[in-house]
Amino acid sequence: MATEEIKEMPKSWAMVGGEGPQSYTQNSSYQKGVVDASKEMVTEGIKDKLDFKSLGFDSSNDTFRIADFGCSVGPNTFFAVENIIKAVKYKHHAQFNNSPPLAFQVFFNDVPTNDFNTLFKTLHSNRKYFAAGLPGTFYGRLLPKSTLHFAYSSYCLQWLSKVPKEVVDSKSPAWNKGSIQCDGLKKEVTKAYSAQFQSDMNTFLNARAQEIVGGGLMVIIMAGLPEGIFMSQAGVGMYYDLLGSCLVDMAKLGVISEEKVDSFNLPLYYSSSTEIEEIIKVNGNFSIEIMDSLSHQIWQTSKKSNIKVSVSGGRAVFQGLVEEHFGSEVVEKIFEHFAKKLADNFSIFDGAAHEHIDHFILLRRNVN
Amino acid sequence: MATEEIKEMPKSWAMVGGEGPQSYTQNSSYQKGVVDASKEMVTEGIKDKLDFKSLGFDSSNDTFRIADFGCSVGPNTFFAVENIIKAVKYKHHAQFNNSPPLAFQVFFNDVPTNDFNTLFKTLHSNRKYFAAGLPGTFYGRLLPKSTLHFAYSSYCLQWLSKVPKEVVDSKSPAWNKGSIQCDGLKKEVTKAYSAQFQSDMNTFLNARAQEIVGGGLMVIIMAGLPEGIFMSQAGVGMYYDLLGSCLVDMAKLGVISEEKVDSFNLPLYYSSSTEIEEIIKVNGNFSIEIMDSLSHQIWQTSKKSNIKVSVSGGRAVFQGLVEEHFGSEVVEKIFEHFAKKLADNFSIFDGAAHEHIDHFILLRRNVN
Prior knowledge:
alpha/beta, 7 strands, about 40% helix, methyltransferase activity (chains A, B), methyltransferase (chains A, B), metal ion binding (chains A, B), transferase (chains A, B), magnesium (chains A, B)
């Protein structure tokens, strides 16, 4: 049985829970911007590409099942899901205008250490769908065969299942000393990260291929890079480099050890659209219906607007990782220093030669 | 759509979360005793009553879906679910011995304020089923139509959706002044509680009737009373009366107000098997396949064994209710006093004329 594949990601991969001032709930305006920017594309994608007849729907099939893979704690996931439901209803009415209304079931997925308590407490009480939580890594099976009609994953798949081991191995040619990310400056490091990304994407696609019915759709939104651009050339890469330099500063001050800094790498990989396209084609379970990038001004705006937003947004995402690696007693110090350094150096982002992009991909599960 | 019926129960209905010394996880040995005592009956019930053919299974239906309504935070729910899966697998093999193995999906239901985080973190990593959390009151719809093959609810349905309003209304003939429970000493109080129970059971049965496929089974285990016996005649009723008398003591000491004590009633109703049978028959969606009571020694044992277990078990269950009504600042004082009073009066339980019983009911969803 495929459930034997179930595996768990480490605790640190979860966003900061609760609803407090440092929570993901309160600090995910960038991710909300991504949801907003993709809203119209999701609506149009469903309108153009969803076909109830090829999904095997007739008047007796009354439940349409949706999953959000990597939903975190809301409210972004609720906006995204409600938008999908609205578009699906519209299309259903267009295809079968006299049949009874669809029922909807929505599976909210994230790692078991995600704050599902907050997610569940903030579910809208007047929601018009059946809600279920799905604890587990999406790099593995989560649902029975042919469960879903629509899968969605926003801003998650740039997160790898793990940091490739070579990049933290001092004996490997891919040792990434002096950097905490795949900055693109060392070929062996890029190769190791790219191989991990390829393997993880394949695992994800294979799991979803089992769970999505033939003809079902999947929207993937993920951070990426324009063709031929490295992380170190993009504003976001400079942001991560600045976090890295804070860790080096902390090591110099004796707050954390140099070895700890050397062994810390972000499990993030920003891919190009060519790279993703190739992986999806080789995988073979899905056809690419739309491959685009989001046009939005969030990154530019958040850069200019507000250093505080920039720090707290990063903290809501990375605190778990930093805490797990360096210990909870130094977290406050590290992020305080990061805030200061970011304020002192904020102008460097205006000089960034490039910006990252957000891929928008709409896939259709091939009918076997 | 039936999802419009969704409604939430107040926070206090959830058991104490986490895994600490006062948690339900650490203090549910009585409920575990119920699970153990019912294990064999569930196994035998599935063996005798589950019929895959009437459920419409053939070799192409590979997922068997189970829900535990009112699962709390484990580990009891995991034991119960694993026992069900084992029995279902055995029966499936007996009915279709050459077909591929079933996949299992399990929905863990409880109110949205239940500690799902602890539940999800303690899911067995080597489990052989797909797990999902289902936040919401079971007195309402939680799943799409015809989702489940097997429903289970252990030690929950004696909890009402609310305290009947008459019993806390000083102008009503059913005003329950001087008691915190349906002790059976006042006809009007019993009538109000009984009507609430009847209404709640009907709501529960109607919701499950939608969710369970024709031919599907449901096991209900719930606290009850032998025919003709009142709560005040049973050991458990004396236990609740003792808690009530502690509240009166606290009011006399000025820790809480008398009005607060008068307006506090437990949303619990212990029914007789005749009463339940009548409700199920009038409801008409299910046939009664087995109606029995559990033979177990837990109550007797826990009475004799350990005052500490008796206090902490009660606290894990009732703390939320007490806290919501009287305020968090007095909870510690109330339960300290309860522990002392219980120790001083523990011998009274040996003099109890009767004991409550635990109903074991196996229902089959009628095929429409």
